[in-house]
Amino acid sequence: MTKFTDLNLNPKVLKAIEEAGYETPTPIQEGAIPPALEGRDVLGIAQTGTGKTASFTLPMITMLARGRARARMPRSLVLCPTRELAAQVAENFDTYAKHVKLTKALLIGGVSFKEQDALIDRGVDVLIATPGRLLDHFERGKLLLTGVQVMVVDEADRMLDMGFIPDIERIFSLTPFTRQTLFFSATMAPEIERITDTFLSAPARIEVARQATASETIEQGVVKFKASRRDREGSEKRKVLRKLIDAEGDNCTNAIIFCNRKTDVDICAKSLKKYGYDAAAIHGDLDQSQRTKTLDGFRDGSLRLLVASDVAARGLDVPNVSHVFNFDVPGHPEDYVHRIGRTGRAGREGKAITICIPRDEKALDAIEKLIQKEIPRLDNPVKREAKPEPETEAETKAPKPEKKRSRGKKPGEVKSRGRDRRDDGGKAVVGMGDHLPSFIALSFEERRAG
Fold first, then answer.
1. Predicted confidence (pLDDT) per residue in 375-426, tens digit
2. CA 106 to chain centre
3. Which residues sit opposite 128 in a β-bridge?
4. How far, in Å, CA of 329 to CA of 355, rounded?
5. Beta strands of 286-342 (E only): which ranges?
6. Is-contact 36 182, C-beta < 8 A?
7. What is the mean pLDDT of the chain?
């Protein structure tokens, strides 16, 4: 069995790995580190939670240990699709480079430009950034990419989903063609293939799992749910979620609950808190300090339930997440793999449960086609109640108005609402309502006689 000591890493890096408690590399690390140390381009394809981050941070630290950074000219660049993933990569560098004198800067949105400019001006060995913020600094004239020796693109398929591919291509064009490129993705869409063919030179391709597969350590299940009425779907669906959490009992030490829309993230989190659950929301509209505080609470165990949009589906590295609940079936099948990949990490067991409403059936079929297996169906923990709940059916308390009995028509009364009505004498009455004054219906002779 291969060990980290067999991979020609810097002794100071090996010391940090040992202190972190690791001894044996994962398959992606074992496959990617040797060619990266040789200076070759690397194309790594692996499912979420397989240790991709260390597969590029470890060789980068070893290679960058020699040399010195210059002002505004980073020596290496790591591109990440989200702030959370970028922050996670930065933490990995801190862990593995603590015995090596390397400087780094994190360029993400929601943080002051002034603080980031100060770091860049001093010169950094490792620049970790999201594409948008990186280009903001470049366009302001605060950054030069001509000194980049190693460029990493992490979670490239997520970059594609988020519309960053044009930015990635532009950033590639700003770096030297002599750079080394390490490119990582969980799936290989045609657009990703095109980019790798364009910007990578004879890369070492390491594929450690079938594309877009879920870890075998994750127990999956789906609950089919149909609301009693369309306007009650949200509240009844949240009740199903609460019952599912309760059914897991103490086995559910912590969990991430995924919603498709930011508004549903907030509603779901508030609902759970209302019913006494320890829950908090995280999505792209929250400011960075609030997102960081929430994630820190989830990591240190002070927060049990994290309700999230897909912004947290990548880069959230909490090794011991026991459960993932998909409150909504994701619209893209690949997102399902990334969501449930937050549990069952590093060989641990995990559980992922999805709630599926009738209009999500097609999306569920696409997921099963992608992962090439049928997800087991689970019983709905909420039994359909014979009578509606009083708090949702307040209107049932109001007495129904009594219907008036229809009385037979008396002779001379108009019987219907037509333009042509007839009284009992057979005379036509045109264009009048039901409450026709009786004298109008009389003939001229009858009126004179009266």
1. 999 999 987 543 444 444 333 344 444 544 545 544 554 444 444 444 444 4
2. 22
3. 78, 106
4. 7
5. 305-308, 323-326
6. yes
7. 84
Instruction: Measure CA of the first residue to CA of the last residue in the chain; give whole Å.
Output: 120
Please name which of 25, 21, 22 lies closest in space to residue 3, comparing C-alpha atoms.
25
Domain boundaries, the chain: 4-207, 218-386, 420-449
- In DSSP terms, 206 is beta-bridged to 44
* Cα R_g (the chain), whole angstroms: 33
User: What is the chain's length?
Assistant: 450
Q: Identify which of 48, 58, 39 has the alpha carbon closest to the alpha carbon of residue 314.
A: 48
HSE-up (13 A, CA, CB side) for residue 156: 27
Task: Select the CATH number that applies to the domain covering 218-386 from these four: 3.40.50.300, 1.25.40.10, 3.40.980.10, 3.30.70.580.
Answer: 3.40.50.300
Distance CA 277, CA 254 (A): 11
Tell me the backbone φ, ψ of residue 215, rounded to 5 degrees: -60, 140
Shortest CA distance to 287 belongs to which of 120, 80, 92, 112? Answer: 112
Measured CA to CA, the distance from residue 206 to residue 209 in angstroms comes to 9
Residues 136/163, Cβ–Cβ less than 8 Å: no
| Homologous superfamily in CATH for domain 4-207 | P-loop containing nucleotide triphosphate hydrolases (3.40.50.300)
Q: What pairs with residue 151 in β-bridges?
A: 77, 181
